[in-house]
Amino acid sequence: MPPIDPLSLRLFLAVVDAGTIAAAAQREHIAAAAVSRRMSEVEAMFGVALLRRTNKGVEPTEAGERLAALAHRALHQFDDIAVQMRDFASGTSGIVRIAANVSSIVQFLPRDIQSFAARHPNVRIQLDEKPSAQVVRAVADNAADIGVFTAVPHGYAIHTMPYRTDDLVLATPPGHALAHAQSIAFADALDEEFVALPSDTAISQSLTRAANAFGRSVRVRIQVSSYDAQCLMIEAGLGLGVMPEAVARQHGLAVVALTDAWAARELLIGVRSLAALPEACRRLVEHLTGA
């Protein structure tokens, strides 16, 4: 059986609604003979009578009433297709894939994404946490539409824009000897033991480079995989840590400003090409950079 087309369904509904082929033809601006022929073709296609001809016009048979109900549903879905595709084109619908480092996720992205979602409730966001180096690669490899990462040398040809400033601090337990210091150079804390993040994170790499510049190494007592775990270990007295200021304050740790230049980090937004971004992605980029 060949598939029935939307025009035939619309004409059939027009005939059922108008009660005569002539009235339906006039409403749809089609010759009455063409409408009559199309109705005959639809009946032949299904092999069942759909319209009962009377001296007053036409009325649907039982099969015709069933087809009318199905046609209303099908045409509504066709109309919905057009609406949804228009929403995708306008940026009010779609899927946006974001890869972001943990610092941006725990400090800034939740609020920014929430305010974007309030304006664009039909845009679905997929957020994947990765170290900054992997975020950049995900954008370059088209595994993510948008990347949020710490400004680090990477060598990939992607377009970047400033997002936020991320201030790193030395976090200590409240009773530690350094807890009441206003500021400190990282080199002056190298005699302490540290609770560190994985070695492939931007923070750990910064600490290693800073220690190496003084011919020293970071004394890592325990390594953890998240800020939450790091804060719990620091609170338990297992070492000091370097983390974003907002994270340390959220967990009630003592905060000591770091005077090192690398402690003021720039967070960037990266995309492969602004011109090639789908509309929903472009709107989110504009929202994030405006934030």
Automatic annotation (TrEMBL):
GO terms for molecular function: DNA binding; DNA-binding transcription factor activity. PROSITE patterns: HTH_LYSR. Keywords: DNA-binding, Transcription, Transcription regulation. CDD domains: PBP2_LTTR_like_1. Residues 4-61 form the HTH lysR-type domain. GO terms for cellular component: cytosol. It holds the Pfam family LysR_substrate. InterPro entries: HTH-type_LysR_regulators, LysR_HTH_N, LysR_subst-bd, WH-like_DNA-bd_sf, WH_DNA-bd_sf. The keyword Nucleotidyltransferase does not apply. PANTHER family: HTH-TYPE TRANSCRIPTIONAL REGULATOR YBHD, LYSR FAMILY TRANSCRIPTIONAL REGULATOR. Belongs to the LysR transcriptional regulatory family. This is LysR family transcriptional regulator. It comes from Caballeronia concitans.
